[in-house]
Amino acid sequence: MSARLDVFATPSGSRLVKQFSSVGRLVAESALPAATRELVSLRVSQINGCAVCLDMHTKEATAAGESAVRLHLVAGWREATVFTEAERAALELAEQGTRIADGAGGVPDEVWERAAKHHDEEQLLALVTLIAFMNTANRLNVILQQPAGDYRPGQFT
Predict the structure, then answer these.
(1) Using CA atoms, how far apart are residues 82 and 67, in angstroms rounded to an integer?
(2) Predicted local distance difference test score (pLDDT) of residue 61
(3) If 94 and its partner were Cys, which of 40, 141, 149, 152 is the partner (CB 3.0–4.6 Å)?
């Protein structure tokens, strides 16, 4: 399988990737815990069916020492006992923020309040930015049919 379009082959595509990646770097440099960032990235990518992002974030999380059990249970986080309350709140916000069209009124106040209970304002901003960033990345990759499986940890850092 090959991508429908080589974004890096066009001048405007290269600029777009550079600018877009800068947002990802800001989130990576934030106070949001690295484990939370990877878990949220995985959950958003699962919902959106983005194989290339699943490949990337599973490998990055594994390289950072994340356990296979936690990675395998991200899709079933509600019933899993391996996540902290802060991670659960972040995963819930990620789902609600990704599935905005599924519910009237956007993200419910109680979901936001649970996230705010465990994350300060800087972390909340990073979390919301990450959710929006991953949704955009997922859509770009799915539309362009980016192939998955060849990612190497640290490839884009």
Answers:
(1) 10
(2) 95
(3) 40
Model pTM score: 0.93
Separation CA 69–CA 80 (nearest Å)? 10
Q: Which fold, 33-144? A: AhpD-like (1.20.1290)
- Could you write out the three-class secondary structure of the chain? CCCCCCHHHCHHHHHHHHHHHHHHHHHHCCCCCHHHHHHHHHHHHHHHCCHHHHHHHHHHHHHCCCCHHHHHHHHHCCCCCCCCHHHHHHHHHHHHHHCHHHCCCCCCHHHHHHHHHHCCHHHHHHHHHHHHHHHHHHHHHHHHCCCCCCCCCCCCC
pLDDT per position as a tens digit, 115-136? 999 999 999 999 999 999 999 9
Give the other-Cβ count within 10 Å of 11's Cβ: 7
CB 112 within 8 A of CB 6: no
The token pair that represents 134 in the structure block? 């991953």
Could you tell me which of 38, 49, 103, 50 has the C-alpha nearest to residue 74?
A: 38
